[in-house]
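Lab notebook, page 48
Experiment: co-folding of the full assembly
Goal: obtain a model of how the components sit together before planning crosslinking
Operator: M.T.
Materials (sequences as entered):
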Amino acid sequence: MNDGEPQSFKKQLPNDQTSREWWRQQWSFTRKELQETLRDPRTIGTLLLMPLLLYPLLGMVLRFLAIQGVMNPIQEYRIAFENEQTAGIVSSMLQRGEEELAKELPSEDTSKPKSLWRTIVPNKESSFNLADAISAGVADVGVRLDAPINNTETDRSGLRLKIVIAKDYGISRTAGTIVRERLRAFSLLMVTSINEDINHPSPGRVEQSVQYVPMLSEDIGILGLLPLVILLLTVTGGVYPAIDLTAGERERDTLETLVALPVPMVRILAAKYVSVLAVTLLTGLVNVIAMTVTGYALGLQSTLLGDAALSPRLVLSFLLVLTVFGAFYSAILLLLASTARSFKEAQAFLIPLMLLSITPAVAVLIPSWRLDGLLSIVPLVNMLLVAKELFEGTIHPLPAFVAVTSTLVYAAAALAVAARRFGSDALVVGGQMSWADVLRRPKSGRDVPAMHTTLLTLGAILPLHFIATGILGQSKTWSPSSRLMASAIFTALLFGGLPASVVWWNRLQWRATFRLYVPSLLIFPAAILLGVATWPWIHEVVLWSRSLGIQVLDDSKVKAVQSMLESWKSVSPWLIVGAIGVAPGIFEELFFRGFLLGALRRSLQVGSALMISSIIFGLFHVILSAGAAPERFLPSTIMGMILGWLLIRTGSIVPSMVMHVCHNSLLLVMATKSEDLGKIAFGESVAEHLPALWLIASAVAISVSAVWMYVISHRDFNRSTMVGSKESQKE
Amino acid sequence: MICVEHLTKQFGSGAGHVLAVDNVSFHANYGEVYGLLGPNGAGKTTTLRMILGLLIPTSGEVTICGSRITIDPIGIKRHIGLVSASAGLYQWLSPLEILEYFAASYGLSREYAQERIRKLIELMDLGSFLHRRSVTLSTGQKQRVNLARALVHDPSVVLLDEPTRGLDVIGSNVVFEFVRNLQKSGKSIVVCTHQLDEAQRLCDRFGLLHRGRLFQEGTLQNLRDATGQETLVEMFLDVLRKPEESDSVLGFPESSSEEI
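Observation: model returned without errors.
Model output:
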């Protein structure tokens, strides 16, 4: 034990870890949590035994019902036609196709009944819309004579048929597949055979196309229940480890030694989070496998999922949604479980959450609920809607992106609060600290926001900005100047007012948080030059993004931008520059550079902090601006990095504000002065690269200002409080 | 060494507040065993938890090897090893995995950690159950693992909270040996206990806590001279019998802090 003088260990315990040591340590935390969880028989019980027992049992019940005739796995599908004539022609085609398929697979068809379908034809008097009939569930699939390939009645050498399928209804999809397979077989037979059946003049070649219609019926297919299944899987997988790794620490009397470690609690909790998420995903995976195997083994897959059960796309989508949903739900579970002082208390917290979660899971089954607008940022609901639309195949990338991004931000915020709660006074000593204590205004402050404060602020700004942008989008009746004013006010309140209130509430230092320092006057020319010289290259990045296929700027959005520019002609240019150039330039900088980058810098390496703050800046510009477009991500992120670099070099928010204002204002002046330049400025021109001379001039100006900035800035930032390694360790 | 100055902890506020620790000051030099003694509820564990950074002091300061708890609450934890009778083990990990986990948590390099763990296995005789899951270990074996865990980062200050609670004679003896070894190796040791006879055997100096306040401090001889009682047990019984008088002698912490 006697290893020399007491202080000798200091050499072995460096205060400043390299990033490799940091990650090694983090892996050690995570490995311990995974070992603790995965070796626990109770975790393995929920992980393996439940699906292994549940699904075969469930399958046997379904099979029993099938034998009893309650559920017939061999469905007699209902095919609707518009009239008797089509019914006659297509029925004979289906029959011939069926015979052809039977020749290919004689052994499999022995148990099947002769007729897989029955036809539904309307009365001659009634008008009959095939799409409505399928939507209403009158029939499983509809076949309509679209048009003969040759428009002459006499020459029936080919037919064009439209197959009408209810999109989110498994039975309809299976019926559709059955019809299409038989028509294809028939068509193949006709093309390869020259023999014509004289009694049934055959139309010969058949071209098919599919029309999907929404299912309006109350009868929801099993596929529609998948979001609910995802929720239940996540809950069953995550609940036990979440409780065991948090409240369990206290119950086993290991919390004290854990809190006594010289490590910020957020790192310990991050390890626990990874472990909970891993178990959640494993549970999901085991359940998917058990479900599929049971389905195959008992021959129930077509009854349960229709043709979709076979699709690897479905399985992949399922796992993808499970991952993001699990990431969110695990953070919420940890947040609640971290607050509990015992297993019992944790269970008391989590049961209401589980019950509460089932409500949105059932609500998203309502067909009219789509992933759109505000619903795409409502936690829990948005990911369940992503799941629903992904399985239906109706998902749009942009709202899905918004949903995933907002969900991950919420998860990070929940985790940050959990870290604050876990290991707090009350948990260690079993006192009476309540949730009110978390929300209570601290008695003493610190200089810059802590990580949990930053993440919570981000978590609040994201949905609020979304709502604000939505309001501006809806305000078409307002005058152009009112909209511009409103836009400026929203920007100021969200990026200035909200962070300012956070600073006030947490008694943070205003100057340190927002980097409100006066830089050297010599920096201004460089900042202005960067502000006016960067846009040609940013424009090139937009073009490059588009060449990669990152674009959803459709005609309606281009028109919206055009009409907006048109409407501005009646507005004072000062107002335009003030609202779109100066206000974002000042307030976005206060938040993204001052508040966010400053706070991230406290906990992360300078490169990581710069990268993360810039990506968040980029994401905000993609998902939330009025002309939302993914091709804005890359240029905005690059702008964020340049602006962040300015802050890091100078230590002051002022140069990045100057650059941002110059950049925005220049684009606005271009837009209002010249139509062509305006198109470029708003990314509306799909065009064309800028003249090489412009790009060279821009590159020279950027280089000159960068070198200028580098030479005259004196690393104020590094000397300032933001970098102090010891202080960065402060909780 | 460890130096505690005017440490105070108040739970709650207003009329219902509890002053768990009231202006407590003491120090323990290198190679010295300091006994923080008192009956249940005296404030021993709260004091210890403040030193460990588990509780934020209402006021006061703790300094260990030049690190101050109010300035570097995380950094100060690197210097402290905690042995607590109530501390549990991770039941699904083996003693070796537990030691490796704590070594990594204290930021030890891999080679240094291996060396430390090898020494501790030898010292605490963990070899025979090194790879067994902790859930299968006996109470004595668990206690040895806990002692080894507290020393994995070779701390300069070791805090022991009721270290012999629940242990039989052999187990207690292991702890005594452990403390003597630490003392020889020049560590500052603070032992919190209400087992006064044990403390009398172990400690060089004593601080007697009652109702959150330190009412006597010094070597056994100092205490005997001040109280006129022979043993620690008698000193406490004397105070407990006359609670109103104990309140009147609570000027001691001030004088004890001056000694430092």
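Interpretation: Confidence is low (pLDDT under 50) at residues 245-260 of chain B.
Next step: discuss with group before ordering constructs.
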